[in-house]
Amino acid sequence: MPGKLQLVALGRNTLGQGIILTGLALLGLGVVIVQTAVASVETPGVAWYQRVDLRHIVFASMAGLILLTLWRCDYRILAKGEKFPWVALGILIFGLILGGLVYVPGVGHSIGGKFRWVRIGPRQFSIGLQPSELIKIALVIFLAAYLSRPRVNNKSIKVFGVCCLAIGVSLLLIAREDFGTAVLIGMISFVIMFIAGIPFYYLFTMIAAGAAAGYCLLLIDPFRINRINAAIDTWSPDNPAAFHAQQAILSILNGGWTGVGLGNGVRKLGFLPEDSTDFIFATFCEEVGFRGALLLLGLLLLWVFQCRTAAKNAGDAFGKLLAASLGILITLQAALHIGVNIVILPPTGISMPFISAGGTSLLLMAAAASIIVSVTSRRVADNPEEIELQNVQKAANA
Amino acid sequence: MSKIGLRITRYDIVFFIAAVMLAGLGVKLGFMIHARYHPVTEQQKRIAALVEKSSGGQKVTILISGRPGNIYGSNFKGVSLMAGSREVPSCFVDLKIMSPEQTVRVCETLSNIFDIDVVELRNKFLANQNRRFVWVYREMTPQQKQALDEAMVQMRKDGIRGVGVLREWRREYPYGNLAGTVIGFCLKDNSPGGGLELKRQNDLRGTDGRRVLWADVHRRGIRPIVEESSQPTDGGNVYLTIDVNIQKYLQDAVAESVERFGAQWGTGIVVDPQTGDILAMCSAPTFAPNHFNTTPAENMLNRAVAMPYEPGSIFKPIIAAQAVQDGTMTYQTMIDCEGGVYSAPRHGRISDHGSRYNELSLRDVIVRSSNIGMAKVGEAMGNERLWQTVRHWGFGRRTKLGLPGESPGIVRPLRKWDGYSTWRIPFGQEISTSALQLVMGFSVFANGGKLLQPNIVRQVTDAKGKITWKPKPQDPKQVLSPDVAAATLAVLQDVVEDPHGTGKKCRIENWTSWGKTGTAQISNPTGIIPDAYVGSFIGAAPAKNTKVICLISIYYPDRQRGYYGGTVAAPYVKGVLEKTLTYLKVPSDR
Hints:
The structure holds two protein chains of two kinds. Chain A is mainly alpha-helical. Chain A contains 13 helices and five strands. Chain A has one domain. In chain A, the strands form two sheets. Chain A has a three-stranded antiparallel beta sheet, covered by helices on one side. Chain A has a two-stranded antiparallel ribbon with strand order 1-5. In chain A, helix 4 runs antiparallel to helix 11, helix 4 (131-147) runs parallel beside helix 12 (359-376) and helix 9 packs across helix 10 (280-312). Chain A is globular. By secondary structure, chain B is an alpha+beta fold. Chain B is built from 19 helices and 21 strands. In chain B, strands 2, 3, 4, 5, 8, 16 and 17 form a seven-stranded mixed beta sheet that branches. In chain B, strand 9 (265-271) and strand 10 (278-284) form a beta hairpin. The longest helix of chain B is centred in the first third of the chain and has 30 residues, at 8-37. Chain B is elongated. The N and C termini of chain B lie far apart (138 Å). The mean pLDDT of chain B is 90. At the A-B interface, helix 6, helix 9, helix 10 and helix 11 of A face helix 2 and helix 3 of B.
């Protein structure tokens, strides 16, 4: 079946162009807003190569490059393996090993008391990675590949069991340090399994298990209850966890309809925590206002429709499921980020795809978008004449 | 393929939910922002108010102090700098941003540079652990500054940021204690502590400039706000009528007399009687403004204006001149001096010093300084006229010279005057005057009867030299007619020239001169202190077209060494006059 798919040049792939342009637009917005968010606070004694704003430009450029080039690689390589998607599993296992390294002293790196990063190399020049980002995408790819295998009955308990095993191991690794990402992974896994046709009775079991696990995690760390309270009663004076939420609301409201102008935001001057990553939407809203937020939401809606079209028109079952789940992953993450920023969700560390500062996230999101473009550019060559014509043209060019 | 094709609706559901979710977020965001502009509930109103309050951000303001202006004295050729400002660097530390190890290192480095005891400095740091600003060393020398600069470069490299240098203006007084009591002093933060520094602070002090910056949450400056920032402006300069040379003559003379006669204090003034300009004004003991913090407070007193005392016989010519002016008597009118002792009920008993006189002309009463003669003048004038005279001549009210702490003197209200007053006011008892008032009173005889407004500030300019203040033109009160003034001056010339005169010791070789002695007893609230006198002499020269008039009063000299004005003050006045006239190149008229 793979042999039937034909690579379509980007020039004739308007959907692929659209997805790439949407991604580039989001990256561009991110570069602008990270510059104003970070450039404000001078951190003395930091070398130029350690400065967040400069690093963000570098990573955003690399992400742009990935968006523009990586789609040429065939996405079907991820689903290699007749019986079992070994490649996807390999990526997932690599991610899980990295995730395990987070807990290894000396390699694991904490920001804000949370061990979510791996740092490799000498102290000054070390390269940081956020394994949870990789696990997130690898799990999505693995599930998409596993659930779209031809001639497999997705209703069997065995399939559900393998999925649950993969999801369970991933969540176990992440949930302790990064509750927000764990919830996101849980939700996207649910969505993929729902799309792939896992029966409802399995899905309900999964919801119940997830709820129970979530409740246990809440019991372990009472601070998480504070955070939930922060979303419910944001202005309670005696909740230390509500500070982020309060500052985010003040930022957004200070921006109002039109914003205070790029670079004029005041909450970013050290008041709003994580202003360039987990709360960049609030910074964005303060400086460009509701108008800017509508632009951003518009881009995300465009993204949703493009991904839906990509999934609908995909050449094979794997492509369909992959494009849909990656598209939903990015949308869902953005929605959670915005939800946290406007405090309808408890404050937690979820970055804005394509926009928040953070190299791992930027590059992997660009790769995910590129995979969707890759899906759109392999179409079923249902017209033999057209194929013949293309072959002739190719020969002529050669 | 077919399987997935069947489940295509699941895709649609998921994407539909995703789109609705995003739209919902947008709507929620819109409602949130709407509530800021149109709050309905209490909570929304509170949040909207909070947003308004916090939307301005925070600013930091750094003050840049303007240079305080100079005080110039006069000299024969031009001006001399008597008080100026110098920019000096001072070192401070911000202890809150340094770790304990860094603090220890900074402590060692700084104690080496400034030669402060390490333990002392460390204790100071420990006591102020959380302070953002602690002075380490004020006013460092250039060598210390250089050493500190080098150390700071090294410390920055090692990530220590808590040491800083502030530039301050330091007041300096190049003439040391010359006219210290007049000029006053400034504290280390440049706030004025007395004298002209205090009275003229609005002219001298520059306006502070400010650098306003947007600040982050740690109050670190982010970027300057140009519209709200301003440059400092330097303070203006004050030019004094005080001549540094004459000041030196006077100050030395008074200091010498105070020391030689073991007096409690002394004061002196030199005035140009034609213009009212004060050429010199001093107190002894005096003080050096550079060392204000090691000087006892009473030495800072400008006694020439701030300490009233009973003038004694010096006061006689003023009352006599007024009596002549009123036509009550002439200088030739004979007065019975009762053989040296005069007493009456309700008037007490008074006597003349030394000689006993029977009949004296009013001229001789002044020349020989007869108390009884003056008491008779008082009787002839009556209390009311005496009181009017005293007030008319400016006693009992401030001269408005423009120095802080000026005393109006003590003149009791007329209703409290009785027979004692009638006899004693005419020879300068029961009344207290400041030295300045006396000198201005005597200037009347020298300038044809005009009571002048004294001046000590010639002009004030701004930092660029534009004149911003000048004394008002003299609008003198004519207290005597010119011929009565001239006649009185002739009598006072005899005080110095006549062999019977009490001021013989002030006779000058090259110039004609005039003057009057005065010796008064010092009283305190319980009565007269035995053997406590204030000896004064007021002298002026030349007799015609008098250029300078000088008063020296010596308070509470040691009685064994001498206490008469003719002894403790006259020779020194003579010295000051001689030097001053030579310095001013006044041609000899003898």
